[in-house]
Amino acid sequence: MREIKFRGKRTGNGDWVYGDFYHTQLHKQGYSCCDVYMIRDELDEDFEVVFATIGQFTGLKDKNGTEIYEGDIVSLYQGEIKVKGVAIIKFSYGYVGGWVVIESDKDVNKFGLSLGLHNNITEVVGNIHDKPELLKITKN
């Protein structure tokens, strides 16, 4: 069974925080005024995070042991040959296991990572928040 955890960038300083995700609302004068997105780390500290940066852990690691999260940009290989370039990890409820890779630099691909195709992922090369320049995918 895979570990369920999330990551997100903290509001204020932009540091990544990892752990359990939850949503709450701030209250002022007895009324709910705004949504707040939080991650509680392994030390039970709560941190407000930017909603757009929240990504779930896929349960997979790359060749270096780096955990792969939704929003990561990964290099794809078959054996020792780079065949797909980079791809973005996203989530889709329509696939068994849910995790898919969409948008490689050669074409648009969707496949379930739970179906053994995760073996083509060599390493995490960045993510859509810290290295947006990697998203300049050229279509041939």
Description:
The chain has strands spanning about 5-10, 15-30, 30-40, 45-50, 55-60, 65-70, 70-80, 80-90, 100, 120-125. It has 2 domains: about 5-55; about 60-135, YopX-like domains (SH3 type barrels, Roll), CATH 2.30.30.290. With about 140 residues, the chain is mainly β. Residues about 105-110 have low confidence and may be disordered. The protein has a 6-stranded antiparallel β-sheet with strand order 4-3-2-1-5-6, with no helix packed on it. The chain is about 0% helix and about 50% strand. It contains no helices and 10 strands.
Outline:
This protein is mainly β. The protein has strands at residues 6-9, 16-28, 31-40, 46-48, 55-61, 67-69, 72-78, 81-91, 99-102, 121-127. The protein folds into 2 domains: 6-53; 60-135, SH3 type barrels (Roll).
